[in-house]
What we know:
Strand content: under 5%
Radius of gyration: 25 Å
Number of helices: 3
Distance between the termini: 57 Å
Structural class: mainly alpha
Order of helices and strands: HHH
Number of strands: 0
Shape: elongated
Amino acid sequence: MKRIIVILSAIAMLSMTALPVLAQEPLPPDPTLSGRFTAEPLGEFIIFDALILRPLGLVSMGVGAVGAAAAAPWAASSNSQARVNRELIQKPHDYTFCRPLGDIDF
Length: 106
């Protein structure tokens, strides 16, 4: 009896280690979609984006503008104004205003 319990426990433990492997498999496409797959964001992501991420994007634009102004002399001397503008001004602007609402993985 004890041997059967040990064998069943070992089988149960081994089967639990195989489940995470199956979790990484992509699902096959749904034939009812006929080739048009659009992933709509969840409502919670849209609310989180509108109430939290967009205002933080505005703050990051302000911080980026101040940082770009502070870095302007060094950027001018090293001829890297385009990089400073892209990283500190353009990317926060695109994140705040150009991405779709609810698209958190921008």
